[in-house]
Specification:
Elements lengths: L2 H8 L5 H9 L2 H15 L14 H22 L3 H11 L2 H16 L2 H12 L5 E4 L15 E5 L4 E5 L7 E2 L10 E10 L2 E11 L12 E5 L12 E5 L2 E4 L9 E2 L5 E2 L9 H31 L1 E4 L6 E3 L4 H36 L6 H29 L11 H8 L9 H18 L34 H28 L4 H7 L1 H26 L4 H21 L1 H5 L6 H18 L3 H6 L5 H4 L10 H10 L10 H5 L13
Helix pairs in contact: 2-3, 3-5, 5-6, 6-7, 6-8, 8-9, 8-10, 8-11, 9-10, 9-15, 9-16, 10-11, 10-12, 10-15, 12-15, 13-14, 13-15, 13-16, 15-16, 16-18
Length: 657
């Protein structure tokens, strides 16, 4: 281990293992995760070393090989679903889409009889699935999907069609050449009446030779900005007939005579989408934690410019500008991890209630999952890019590992709903509560600031720097900001309505303000989740101190960054925002000595981090050179390009010259 990282760890007073347990959700979860990950990084078949030198086709072929090896391995070892999930997450391949999307949708949307028929072969990978919702012409606007499923009462079949070019299913992972089956989201048509979108299980390929079923056409949509191994595809349906029993009937139902029974709540059909949105919060938190682990370790090893003549060059993490880039990202990663755990528990409790017929929590779950998916992916992707920039030229090299993390996280801002649209879904929920003016007793903690009996302070109370570190004082500021922005957006909407605009036009005219309001609400929600987490866990005094410092940094950095919104109605003064910024600088000094142990607590093993710059031992330069030597272009002293092309130009100088 290099001296710099060794010194960082030796001087730390933190219990890193305890922090890891907190981030994982308990010591038992840490144990399970490590056992599962070890199955990946100790297996030569899952070696990541050559990942960056593969072509698009080679990457896809490797992914297919790994899916097979993964299934064989987990079946041989008889791994339970939780361990399988950890292994799949470590691999980041197509099997994860099958187990993480297709199977959960069957579990949540199919009837008990359908589950008995399809779940067992799906779990054994005897059939492989995709989830085909997005179309070429429609994404987040699900009600606008064009694919149809028309019921034929004579044959008791549904006839599925892609009636237009824009109705082709477009983007789903595994759909191109891997999946044998897919869940198709289509408009249910019975006797000419449109009953809206429903889910249908469609077989895409023959299980004997993998050729397309009649009327089915699938293919790959072409190279993407990273993740080419996922096999994102398209699907065209031409009078594809499926049995009536292939409509997922866990909530809605069509009887043989064509009688339709609607679900208790239309949102129940969005269960899989809500599940994915909830999961994205944790996924992107993990992506950000990987990027900031790499950037922090590299910033300790990398030195630049002495502060004294003939003195040693400074570690770049000792520059306050570097701390200001990276340390808030550590705080963000911790905050989003806590939020991910919270939303997962909210999802589980809500699903448990729904299974008992209680649907009261569904609107809250739908709104919260939409907003937090948007906020977390936005924060994480911006933070990953800052980490890349903080590594200078190293961040541009694939050897750093950050570009891979970035392209993996980047789609999160658009899949399962474009972030702007998801913010607006949350905003509609906020406007509804704002107009209803319910008492606090009828509202959940995160929206009590919209209650009729909520009495906000007109100005922020802190007058001294120390007062600013009180988390309740910080939270109150975030409540006021959110309330002000909701009120402002609602006022703009009402003004537009008063001018004679219809509801949708009025909403559109105020939509930018509503996005700001929803983002502020989500920021508040994550802060409250962070505060709740650190107030309920039992940790060592030093761990409690650093977690509180991270929470303060998360809150105050957010105020400093969005100072205009906190000052908008006179709630804060410019002097108070300056005081906040001053406290941010002090918190950087508190967090800096523990930066390396804090990222160590994320527990990303080198074998899975795949980063020369973020190695645990800090031996960056030696391994960077060894990595370069592996480049296929370095196999020969003279590259074939010289003989084929460059030789025509390059000549020895003539005597005359």
């Amino acid at each position: 281990m290099v001296m710099e990282l060794q010194q960082e760890r030796q001087r730390s007073r933190l219990d890193v293992e305890q922090l890891t347990n907190i981030l994982d959700g308990g010591a038992s979860e840490t144990k399970l995760r490590r056992e599962a990950e070890a199955l990946v990084y100790t297996d030569p078949k899952f070696n990541h070393d050559d990942l960056h030198y593969l072509s698009t086709e080679e990457s896809f072929m490797q992914s297919a090989e790994r899916i097979v090896h993964y299934v064989q391995k987990v079946e041989k070892l008889k791994l339970d679903p939780l361990r399988r999930r950890y292994v799949g997450r470590a691999l980041n391949q197509g099997g994860q889409l099958h187990e993480g999307v297709f199977i959960p949708d069957l579990e949540g949307q199919a009837s008990e009889e359908q589950k008995k028929k399809w779940l067992d072969p799906a779990k054994k990978f005897q059939i492989m699935g995709a989830y085909a919702q997005t179309e070429m012409g429609h994404g987040t606007y699900i009600r606008g999907l064009e694919t149809t499923a028309t019921y034929d009462g004579n044959s008791q079949e549904f006839i599925l069609n892609s009636p237009t070019l824009t109705s082709l299913k477009w983007w789903p992972g595994n759909l191109g050449h891997i999946a044998t089956h897919t869940i198709v989201i289509a408009r249910l048509i019975i006797k000419g009446k449109d009953y809206g979108i429903h889910q249908f299980l469609v077989q895409l390929r023959n299980l004997n030779d993998h050729k397309h079923m009649p009327g089915v056409t699938t293919g790959d949509i072409g190279p993407l900005f990273g993740q080419n191994q996922v096999n994102n595809g398209y699907l065209q349906l031409d009078n594809v007939r499926i049995p009536r029993e292939n409509m997922l009937m866990g909530h809605a139902r069509v009887d043989p005579d064509g009688t339709y029974f609607k679900p208790a709540n239309a949102r129940l059909s969005y269960g899989s989408m809500i599940y994915l949105r909830s999961g994205i919060v944790s996924w992107v938190a993990g992506d950000l934690s990987r990027a900031v682990t790499i950037a922090t370790r590299y910033s300790v090893v990398r030195r630049q410019t002495p502060t004294k003549p003939n003195g040693p060059e400074m570690q770049i993490l000792d520059y306050v500008t570097q701390q200001h880039k990276l340390l808030p990202q550590i705080a963000n990663a911790y905050a989003l991890t806590m939020a991910g755990s919270f939303i997962h528990q909210l999802y589980l409790s809500s699903i448990s209630e729904m299974n008992k017929g209680v649907l009261t929590s569904l609107p809250v779950l739908h709104s919260t999952s939409a907003g937090l998916k948007a906020f977390s992916s936005e924060v994480a992707c911006h933070g990953i890019e800052l980490c890349r920039l903080a590594c200078g030229g190293m961040g541009y090299s694939l050897a750093s590992g950050i570009p891979f993390v970035y392209v993996k996280a980047l789609p999160s801002q658009t899949y399962e709903g474009d972030n702007t649209v998801l913010y607006l879904q949350t905003a509609r929920f906020l406007r509804k509560l704002y107009i209803q003016q319910l008492p606090q007793s009828q509202l959940s903690q995160d929206v009590k600031y919209l209650a009729s009996d909520y009495a906000p302070q007109k100005t922020w109370t802190p007058r001294k720097l120390d007062h600013i570190l009180d988390v309740e004082t910080q939270t109150e500021a975030y409540r006021h900001r959110a309330m002000h922005l909701v009120s402002r957006a609602n006022h703009m909407t009402e003004v537009a309505l008063a001018k004679g605009n219809n509801k949708e036009i009025a909403w559109n005219l105020a939509s930018v303000e509503w996005v700001r309001a929803a983002r502020a609400h989500c920021h508040l929600s994550v802060l409250q989740m962070f505060v709740t987490a650190i107030n309920t866990i039992k940790v060592t005094p030093n761990n409690q101190k650093i977690l509180t410092a991270l929470c303060n940094l998360f809150a105050l950095h957010g105020i400093a960054k969005n100072g205009g919104e906190f000052q908008a109605d006179g709630y804060m003064s410019s002097n108070q925002v300056d005081m906040v910024q001053e406290q941010v600088y002090k918190l950087l000094g508190v967090v800096r000595p523990e930066a390396v142990p804090l990222v160590d607590a994320f527990d990303h093993k080198d074998e899975l981090l795949c980063s020369v710059a973020g190695r645990y031992d800090g031996d960056v330069y030696n391994h960077l050179y060894q990595w370069a030597l592996k480049s296929p272009r370095n196999k020969s002293e003279v590259h074939p390009a010289y003989h084929q092309h460059l030789k025509k130009l390059i000549k020895p100088p003539s005597a005359k010259l």
